[in-house]
Amino acid sequence: MIEISGLTKRYGAKLAVDEVTFSVHPGRVTGFLGPNGAGKSTTLRMLLGLDHPTSGTALINGKRYRDLRFPLRTVGALLDGAGPVPERRAVDHLTWMAQSNRISRRRVREVLDLVGLADAAKKQVRKYSLGMTQRLGIAAALLGNPEILVLDEPVNGLDPDGIRWVRGFLRQYAASGRAVLVSSHLMAEMADTADDAVVIARGRIVAHGTLKEITDGHESLESAFFALTGGQAGVAW
Ligand SMILES: Nc1ncnc2c1ncn2[C@@H]1O[C@H](COP(=O)(O)OP(=O)(O)OP(=O)(O)O)[C@@H](O)[C@H]1O
């Protein structure tokens, strides 16, 4: 379980994340939704110990990320821009990650199979398509068979096949009793993927509940999102 409480991040005069509080439960896909610059990545980076909060806490099974003994075994993450070294072969990248968390080589094969990259395991990552790179990122997140998955914009730039694969995969992962937190600004996509949603705008949580609760009284998740975030289609925030 993820518990975020009063989480705040200030960059100089800019309040990027402002008293954010929400939790993410096992067996559910939670969509973390917000326009560009709303504070999604900053929140996830603090959750994963990559940035220090100005105040507040972000806990994974009751602990801060950096206090987890073998973090990959508890929480798997795919973050924007945190890719592997391009010259490395996919299998070597995963083996290197696995070793640092005492995960077996057998598991490396398993996750490559799981994401459909078994045949491309020995290719250099720089020869991968965007879709393959995203699958590799998900394979890395799965290495420790974690009970929690955190994915920042996993379908960005994917073609419809890739998007469908990620959606099916996340639904299946949550159905096996694990907790999935996935950030996105693609409302139609999240409407098909998430059970719960947390909506953030300008660093603050503006809605948190089941998808049904959030869309109640609106035509779609997209129109609920625009009403909540004060935006309009086609207008930059
Ligand atoms: N290192 C930093 N220094 C200064 N400001 C930052 C820094 N990182 C983020 N910000 C600012 O904090 C705000 C939140 O950014 P963040 O990247 O968390 O948003 P986001 O919701 O993930 O957006 P996107 O969907 O575009 O990735 C933005 O205004 C951004 O410019």
TrEMBL record:
Q: Would the keyword ATP-binding be found if you checked this record's keyword annotation? A: yes
User: ABC transporter domain spans which residues?
Assistant: 2-227
Lineage: superkingdom? Bacteria
Kindly provide the name given to this protein in its UniProt entry.
Answer: ATP-binding cassette domain-containing protein
Provide any one GO MF term from the record: ATP binding
Pfam families with a match to the protein in the record: ABC_tran
Which keywords fit this entry according to its UniProt record? ATP-binding, Nucleotide-binding, Transport
